[in-house]
Amino acid sequence: MEIRFKSRRAPVIHDFPYPRRGRKCPHASLISITNPGGCSYACPICYARAYPWSDPETIVIYHDIPERLKAEIESSWLLFPFYLSQITDPLQPIDEVRALTLRIVQLLIDCGLSFRIVTRSSDGLRWLVRMIPDLASYPYFFVELTVESGNEKVVVTSPDAPPIPDRLDAIAQLTGLGIEVVARIDPIIIGLIDEEDLDSLIGAIGSTGASHIISSTGYFNHRSMKRLLMRMRECGYQDRIHRVVKAYRYHPGAKRRRFTTSLQFRKRFHRELRAKVEAKGMTYSVCQELPHEYDSPDLATCEGSRRNPVQIRIGERFEPLPCYGDCLCCPRPDDPPCGEPRLQQEYPYRTATLFRFRQPPLFGEDKN
């Protein structure tokens, strides 16, 4: 892959692009370290590499992110939990990407801000903890590590990422250090991954100390589905191609742009998978494709962690609010903890809403 460097033109801090209607994701502070899909793992199932505007053969590294992020933080009065990274792996084995992630993480810690890292890179996580030992005791941080298949079928789903056993070992090591780790088993490729695969994977995750699992059956467009089927054919799973095609209702001549499993299937699948996960003493949530009632009860958000609060500026510091950014489920919609009801309507939020200078009321104080 070609590696290039450039400045990021758009604001560094941005929200998920999903509109209010049908949205499940809470507000977040996303940080894009590279271009969409700019990742050396080049997973065949990656949705970011399938965007029409993505360039899967090029990794563009936004080299000025830390400086611009610092300026945006200094201009903000309210910040949602930071997310590294939704369109690329922030700990992929490229020195310049890891160095950038290291600087960003150190900045967030110095500012006392909440964040999570989503990755397949078990070795990258070990490296990051070695470089910043304080991560083990930092209260506003957790990891989501993706273990989307058994070790045999990883040759289809993420062949260039670390082996699944190594990822599971990393979860156990990090939880042993006191770092909260959420296991992502998404997307589960229906037709490729069997029930036996899932039973084995859930059992293995349960033994690592992880307490929460996030899952989905995923979605594909023509570009990503063709890439997946080609990879299955190359790896000797051609006998399962018809199962995948049927499950995702795919036809190469279809005019539809998005291929998913049916709603009826998803409801049954996630009910059964949630029962399996909860039987192992863990909690479960569905990423995007079903509403909250299909998740385990009493979760702060579908991320399954309470280490990522929204934070508000009080003087020179940011302090945590009793809130995790899910403004659609705000327990006090008329008097939200952040003091900004408009965030219940802004999906995605306007960056200017975070940057408006004002003196917010101290949360929890009696306004009368």
Written account of the structure:
- The chain is an alpha/beta fold and 368 residues long.
- It has ten helices and twelve strands.
- The protein folds into two domains: 1-140 and 307-359, no CATH class; 151-306, no CATH class.
- Helix content is 29%, strand content 13%.
- How large is the share of residues in beta strands? 5-15%
Number of domains: 2
| Class by SSE composition | alpha/beta
The radius of gyration is: 20 Å
Shape: globular
Q: Helix proportion of residues, in percent?
A: 25-40%
Average pLDDT over all residues: 94
Task: For the largest sheet, list the strands in their spatial order.
Answer: 2-5-6-7-8-9-10
Please give the count of helices.
Answer: 10
Distance between the termini: 61 Å
Number of strands: 12
The poorly predicted ranges are: 359-368
Biggest pleated sheet = 7 strands, parallel
SSE blueprint and pairings:
Blueprint: E1 2-6, E2 29-30, E3 58-62, H1 65-75, E4 78-79, E5 82-84, H2 95-110, E6 115-119, H3 122-131, E7 141-146, H4 154-157, H5 164-176, E8 181-184, H6 195-206, E9 212-215, H7 222-234, H8 241-247, H9 263-279, E10 283-286, E11 311-314, E12 317-320, H10 351-355
Parallel strand pairs: 1-3, 2-5, 5-6, 6-7, 7-8, 8-9, 9-10
Antiparallel strand pairs: 4-11, 11-12
Helix pairs in contact: 1-2, 3-5
Descriptive keywords:
368 residues; alpha/beta; seven-stranded parallel β-sheet; three-stranded antiparallel β-sheet; 10 helices; 13% strand; globular; disordered C terminus
